Description:
Residues 13-394 form the Cation/H+ exchanger transmembrane domain. It comes from Shewanella violacea (strain JCM 10179 / CIP 106290 / LMG 19151 / DSS12). The protein contains 18 helices and no strands. The chain has helices at residues 2-25, 31-42, 57-76, 80-85, 88-112, 118-127, 137-141, 147-176, 186-218, 229-244, 249-263, 265-275, 278-298, 304-314, 316-326, 333-341, 347-360, 367-398. It has one domain (2-402): Na+/H+ antiporter like fold (Up-down Bundle). Helix 2 (31-42) crosses helix 13, helix 14 packs parallel to helix 18 (367-398) and helix 15 packs across helix 16.
Amino acid sequence: xxxxxxxxxxxxxxxxxxxxxxxxxxxxxxxxxxxxxxxxxxxxxxxxxxxxxxxxxxxxxxxxxxxxxxxxxxxxxxxxxxxxxxxxxxxxxxxxxxxxxxxxxxxxxxxxxxxxxxxxxxxxxxxxxxxxxxxxxxxxxxxxxxxxxxxxxxxxxxxxxxxxxxxxxxxxxxxxxxxxxxxxxxxxxxxxxxxxxxxxxxxxxxxxxxxxxxxxxxxxxxxxxxxxxxxxxxxxxxxxxxxxxxxxxxxxxxxxxxxxxxxxxxxxxxxxxxxxxxxxxxxxxxxxxxxxxxxxxxxxxxxxxxxxxxxxxxxxxxxxxxxxxxxxxxxxxxxxxxxxxxxxxxxxxxxxxxxxxxxxxxxxxxxxxxxxxxxxxxxxxxxxxxxxxxxxxxxxxxxxxxx
Length: 403
């Protein structure tokens, strides 16, 4: 019965937020901020109206689908022609900034949490490395922000999830098997396999889906009302097909969207429509469940050290590696700081924690890891939600000539 109450509450929250969403956005209050707050209010932390287990299957499925749809839509709405001309920034972020972030997060974790096993600290760093462009939606959707910068932030957010995910699974497997040293290098091949097969499957699904869509529209086989459903089916199909073929489903969703949105204007338009409706709904529901299930279970384990690491994760441990990676990219300092700040933690971190919880069975022994991720995401929801539009406006004023 608990799950039915949660679904009822979600419907009421969607209605309430929908009626006042525009008024709230004018106050720089984002959807994730509101839905997380509603979740907190209804949880045992607030009025204790309802509660749900953090590793409940339906929670994992909702968050998983949300991330798949976000990755698919973000990739589809990228300007691939622009990306070909300005690929160097995302490449720097992913292949220089990302590894430095993981190493720095592990090292700082060892200083703040000296009693935690090194392998747990590596896991913590990995969980907090992926970024979530949805929490800074105003930045990646504001046409006044230069396209090159918006595209770079979007590509980084879309690909770092899939790159980190195989590493998370590898570390979890090592912990489960009792290994504490990363001596076995077989994980390198595993990561490579996940990325390559994920990209190939995603590209194939995107190609076939787009080809059939064009043919169906040209021959008038398809009702127009169904065209918004095709992107959802392609995104989910690419994810589960890749997972069954030893690939990474999240990378597959990204590449399926990348092909579908950049080779077919019909698909691109409908993907944009669904991203603003169905995709947005799954994202907001995920943040509601975060406030309802995640925060209460970790509340007792939150300490000053946990808050300190969370703060550093959003600032120094994110921004310094990004700035280092962008040295020599011919960007001014304000652009480097702008990109560095907009690395929110959200859906991916939540999903990865769910996967760890599922694999480990409980949070026993991982209290520090869970509490740090929870506090970091919670801080990010409000910090990036409140600053996205004001900083986008500020940055656009001084960089109009870049558009």
